[in-house]
């Protein structure tokens, strides 16, 4: 257990599970994944698409340290200044399943299911924009999200940040949620790939390093934290179809069973009627 977990839990508190998003739950940067549909929607130009693709490649190969995250934040906020908020939400909603669904780690989805089955709330905590994180959270079925919020005015982004869900700000948000919803942080879980999320990991009693960068792997090894390797991106629809029979199959089985039961009942009634009216034995022979 981390020695930095100091917040006392309210009476009757329960644990929760806090998940970072990029490279922890999904295999890429959630924001940069929308570069192409933003271009097709006229929000960014071709140069910005190429720059986003390059940033996505760097992020996938080496992750992002504090300096890179700061530069990425400045780049993204400058790029989205003046964007129509409603249009952004519409593009995210229309392309979410196509872009994000195939990137979800099967291991992460299973963990979310296990925590829910154990009665824990699951919270997605990401430095990506609220418009993207909320949509992904709804797709995953999580209970709450913590995300970066941009300032809006007259339906457009001003380029200013109202709340930046990064580094120590994530830990602050986690503690505020614990107070608001009665979470026992000492009994809670947290998952992240980045050393920039150390404050959030240190805020709970059960921190886990997922596909960790070098700095986080070193800390996790020193402190004896579990180190998890997520390597199987799979769409939620694929997981659903593999784990549950399809609706037509279930319906067909139900219809078939119903018909069999009805047939048996009809035959039993017929035998009883013949016995009463024709003096036949139940076997159909003269008594």
Please, could you describe this protein's structure?
By secondary structure, this protein is α/β, with parallel strands linked by helices. The protein has 2 domains: 16-240, 3-Layer(aba) Sandwich (Rossmann fold); 245-278. Helix content is 51%, strand content 15%. The protein contains 11 helices and 7 strands. Strands 4-3-2-1-5-6-7 form a 7-stranded mixed β-sheet. A hairpin with a 2-residue loop joins strand 3 and strand 4 (156-163). Mean pLDDT is 78; it is low at 53-63 and 241-287.
Number of helices: 11
Assign a percent range to the helix content. 40-55%
Span from first to last CA? 81 Å
Q: Helix and strand succession?
A: EHHHHHEHEEHEHEHEHH
Q: Structural class, judged by helices and strands?
A: alpha/beta
If classified by CATH, what would the architecture of the largest domain be? Answer: 3-Layer(aba) Sandwich
Hey, roughly how much beta strand do the residues contain? 5-15%
Biggest sheet character: 7 strands, mixed
The geometry reads as globular
**What is the fold named in CATH at topology level of the largest domain?**
Rossmann fold
Neighbour order of strands in the largest sheet: 4-3-2-1-5-6-7
Overall number of structural domains: 2
The CATH superfamily of the largest domain bears the name: HAD superfamily/HAD-like
Provide the low-confidence segments as ranges. Answer: 53-63, 241-287
The CATH class label of the largest domain is Alpha Beta
Radius of gyration: 27 Å
Average residue pLDDT: 78
The overall strand count is 7
């Amino acid at each position: 257990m981390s020695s930095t977990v100091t917040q006392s839990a309210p009476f009757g508190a329960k644990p929760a599970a806090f998940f970072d998003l990029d490279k922890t739950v999904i295999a890429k940067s959630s924001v940069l994944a929308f570069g192409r549909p933003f271009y097709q929607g006229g929000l960014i130009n071709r140069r910005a698409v190429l720059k986003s693709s390059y940033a996505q490649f760097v992020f996938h190969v080496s992750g992002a340290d504090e300096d890179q995250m700061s530069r990425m934040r400045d780049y993204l906020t400058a790029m989205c200044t003046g964007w129509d908020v409603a249009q952004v939400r519409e593009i995210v909603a229309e392309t979410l399943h196509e872009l994000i669904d195939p990137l979800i780690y099967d291991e992460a989805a299973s963990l979310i299911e296990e925590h829910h089955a154990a009665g824990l709330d699951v919270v997605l905590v990401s430095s990506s924009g609220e418009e993207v994180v909320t949509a992904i959270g709804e797709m995953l079925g999580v209970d709450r999200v913590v995300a970066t919020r941009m300032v809006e005015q007259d339906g457009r982004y001003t380029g200013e940040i109202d709340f930046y869900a990064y580094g120590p700000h994530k830990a602050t948000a986690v503690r505020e949620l614990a107070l608001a919803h009665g979470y026992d942080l000492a009994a809670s879980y947290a998952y992240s790939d980045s050393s920039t999320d150390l404050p959030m990991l240190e805020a709970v009693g059960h921190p886990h390093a997922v596909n960790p960068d070098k700095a986080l792997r070193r800390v996790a090894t020193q402190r004896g934290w579990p180190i998890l390797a997520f390597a199987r991106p799979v769409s939620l629809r694929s997981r659903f179809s593999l784990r549950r029979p399809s609706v037509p199959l279930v319906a067909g089985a139900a219809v078939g069973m119903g018909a069999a039961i009805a047939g048996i009942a009809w035959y039993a009634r017929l035998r009883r009627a013949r016995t009463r009216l024709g003096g036949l034995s139940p076997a159909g022979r003269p008594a």
